[in-house]
Write a structure and sequence with these properties.
This protein is mainly β. The chain is built from 2 helices and 11 strands, in the order βαββββαββββββ. Strands 1, 2, 5, 8, 9, 10 and 11 form a 7-stranded antiparallel sheet that branches. A two-stranded antiparallel sheet has the order 3-4. The chain is extended.
Length: about 200
Amino acid sequence: MATSSLLNFTVPLSDIGVSASGQGLIMPKLKYRFRILFIGFGVSTDTTESTKQVVDFKRPSVKFDEQVIDVYNSKVHYAGKPAWDATTVTLRDDVESQIQTLVGQQVQRQFDFLNQASAASASDYKFEMLCQMLDGGNGISEPTITETWDLTGCYISNADYDSLDYKTSDPVVVKLGIVFDNAIQTAYGVGSPVPRLAGVLAI
């Protein structure tokens, strides 16, 4: 069949023992198939409007402190403490100001600008975000979640309320910088117990 030629639409693998049926290209995840859920954001119990008005979101990125041990004629490297980079989410500003209300509530939880008072503890204002990658299902075909990022210990580090311009018809957006303490990716088991090696541990 002609469709069998599609199995060759990738790098050749048959010479390293991969069967023809396993050589085809797997469907990639698409950037627009996602949703962001906000848990404990602001003071309202209903945060679904923030989910519906998401424009874009940057998935987490992690980096490890590079540590070096100097030995006789060489250097040995090992990974130090991990640190999660801040992420961003952009929200459309709706005409009913529901987004402004939710963002304003969250910012006010972090700092009371009127009375110039800050929260006693970070736990008083931190929230959770779930980034769920979807398969495109909707309506009678409910979507399947293919990947989830669970961001915990989140707070707004900066809120940009966008500029206004007579020359454009683009919607006004609110751009949020989000700092978080930890992220768990369910698709690959990040955060699962660290395996221990038997005997002496080598660097």
